[in-house]
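2024-03-11 09:14:02 INFO receiving multi-entity request
2024-03-11 09:14:02 INFO entity count = two
2024-03-11 09:14:03 INFO echoing inputs for audit
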Amino acid sequence: MRYELYYWTGIQGRGEFVRLALEDAGAAYADVAREEGDGIIMPFLRGERPGAQPYAPPFLRAGRQVIAQTANILAFLGPRHGLVPASAASQVYALQLQLTIADVVAEAHDTHHPIATDLYYEDQRPEARKRAASFCKERIPKYLGYFEQVLERNDGRHALGRRHSYVDLSLFQLMAGLDYAFPRTMKGLRRRTTHLRALSERVADRPNIAAYLASPRRVAFNEDGIFRHYPELEPRIFRTRQ
Amino acid sequence: MRYELYYWTGIQGRGEFVRLALEDAGAAYADVAREEGDGIIMPFLRGERPGAQPYAPPFLRAGRQVIAQTANILAFLGPRHGLVPASAASQVYALQLQLTIADVVAEAHDTHHPIATDLYYEDQRPEARKRAASFCKERIPKYLGYFEQVLERNDGRHALGRRHSYVDLSLFQLMAGLDYAFPRTMKGLRRRTTHLRALSERVADRPNIAAYLASPRRVAFNEDGIFRHYPELEPRIFRTRQ
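2024-03-11 09:21:47 INFO inference complete, emitting structure
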């Protein structure tokens, strides 16, 4: 099956979590909007195409099926490509973890858009500064502390069982995005995120992922995406409780 | 199987979406924190109990399995209690819709906590006013317009196929919460939400749901929950494009 991925061009965004799974699996897929432009996405959002109507990209076309919501797409792809253990209980747990990653990602977005998604960042900068301070001081440590513990309670190397999964891929992407957006904060957390760091390096070294990251298909992080680096947003003095 | 639901006492919150499914299904469950206090939740969050470690409530214990994240719990319960069609494609679509409901719910929360979840509402009131204005003017109409279209593209009465599902229950709860928090906005949208209104009434009339809503187990909406009614947050003049 050749999948069709639909996501806005020019950014990694939420689509990147799906892209990493497809790339890691070596799955055949078209990144449709990159070939045909963002306009191809709109008829789906207006309900003018067969299959489930997405509220927003990313969505995946798999045969006649249209599947939206990042975590849902990954839960669909996981068992088809060996990216999640076979047991039903493991798949439920994988989705739980992925949804918690989605929660951090949504909060990362809101650091630069705390008031309204339809306003520019520049129109909500004072509020963004406050929200980002809270995100860096309270939320990143709490979320990463949780995922670090998840790894530690497991085998120290994987989110699930003794094997690689789409959750590991997403943890890699989460770390990469936070490193880009909030480098001082992430540096301050290095000693408390050793398992996550080691996992990220292992993921980056997987042959298909390494090839993908070196390819032009991996667009760079930038200030149109979800993880944005606005130096003025990161608290200047940041002390973590080590 | 007798389930154990774990959620903070005193509010409906995200736990209510799970509670509605359990009540509608007539499932046997203990609402554990209501019996034993919120303290019972903490050891799970600290990873001191067997099974998956939740990041936050609600979570459900089903035998030895611990399941967190609202949409994930519903995806688990759905097929066990006839609250989702049997086909895999329908279950994927149900989860997609539920995750979009979760997105609105998260945005509803952020109307009163746009800066930091660990600050009081009173400490972020000016920002809350701005975020709530955007939520009422842009986001509620867009999300409800989407769900209205989902119903219309289906049979006009259900989110999925020709039958009741956990997504219908969640749409009822979403409408109830938004009605409580933003009554003027919702009144202004009445003519554009006729299918959602009719669905909500049908859900409220289901025997198990009607009995539940009339019982003391349904705690009232209040200003500790996700859907909060702060009259000062709702834009005073609100015109919808009918």
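2024-03-11 09:21:48 INFO post-check: Chain B is about 50% helix and 5% strand.
2024-03-11 09:21:48 INFO post-check: Chain B touches chain A at residues 47, 52-55, 65, 67-69, 71-72, 75-76, 89, 92-93, 95-96, 99-100, 103, 106, 110, 114-119, 124, 127, 130-131, 134, 138-139, 143, 146, 149-150, 153 (CB under 8 Å).
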